[in-house]
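Researcher: Next entry in the queue.
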Amino acid sequence: MTLRIHNHFKGTKEEFQPLDPKRVTMYVCGMTVQGPPHMGHMLAFVSADMVRRSLEYLGYNVFHIQNFTDIDDKIIVKANEAGCTATEMAEKNIEAFFSAADALGIQRAHMYPKVTEHIPEIVEYIEGLIAKEHAYAAEGNVWFDVRSYGPYGELSGRKIDDLQTAVRVELEESKRDPLDFALWKSAKPGEPAWDSPWGPGRPGWHIECSVMSTKYLGPTFDLHGGGRDLLFPHHENELAQSKATEGEFVRYWMHNGLLNLDGQKMAKSMDHFFLVEDVLAKYPADVVRFYLMRGHFRNNMEYSWERLDEAAAAYDRMRRALVKLEELVADGSLGADVPDGVTSEAGVALEESVAKARAGFREALEDDFNSEAAIAALFELVRVANPYLVASPSAGDLDAEPVRATLAVLREGLGALAVFEGVGQVSVPPEILEMARRRDEARTEKNWAQADALRDEMVARGFSVEDSSEGTKVRPA
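Model: Structure for this entry, 477 residues:
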């Protein structure tokens, strides 16, 4: 099977054919940093990270760009409220984004361009649009002439004559048409501004992504990601001004679903959100990442503490399986009592499940990056493996190769998605192993009080204690 992607531009799932077979170019719309990230933001960036990691797992090299909108009306308002500069507000929230992204295992993009670092390029780009009569200057502003670009609406499927009542119209007398959108905004008193041929001002929102994406990825690149809420007007406007300039622009448009709260999109503008830092105070970061990847990235998700609890319970099922498998593989007696060349019926079934899980995982990612189905394939392997592992009284009674293969497939798949990293691989400190040894001695001497006291101390230090025929076994709880 080859990788197939649902291309929003065409509305169909098609075979992925990057411009360069050896290098995939990928642009993701980043945050407007008027505040720290909330969970809705991080669904988009975990989704983008999953897409990138899936591409790398499937053998592609990826060059990934993600911008920061570090100047904007909202940033200026928030900075004024806080009594700081717009730059200080933006940098503070960029730092908060990186803190949340690092906690959630999101790979750093190769570059994070900022609007304020690309003013000369933006001015030059706007001049090109004016020269081609797709834009016009008026009273210090520059507007994109929407009706000058015939295919406008092709990405979102909207018709230009129906749009006037469907969009928020900027009330500016200098506009020729209510649908025209700002490329350059004239400066207002007290606001940050840069010099331009049209007077002091700053860029409009949409122009930044066209400029920064094409500067670093070329006039045509492979993938453009972002939330479904950006489809219109942001991506529609981005597409229009880019294709009016040059190039095909984007070959595959990909939009992730939204994280809803009580049926409505999480949004700071409506004070309707949960900050990432507040969620991470209640749940481990790996559980939160796992939760955000449980559905197909194109689908909307409903946020609730109950759903996070469900994800945590599912996470724990996989965690326990990994801990058990790591323990068995590390045990030198694995398969010791099974004759060479002999595999039990249950072992054969497990081998078949391993092959099925490996194939199912890859096929799911090749089918439009379906992390939901990919994770389900691994959980199905755990469902088959658990009864086999539990039924055997010791590691020596198990078929070694199916057990090792089960762990290898789980580690390969989960590692590709950057979840459960390190689970089960935490070593038991020497002092805890010494306590386990002393407990075995106490049990041999029938000193039950001392044995119980040692068990309670190990549990208090965060380790589970299990009695077995080989003695006390301890592992991180």
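Model: The longest helix spans residues 305-330.
Researcher: Noted, moving on.
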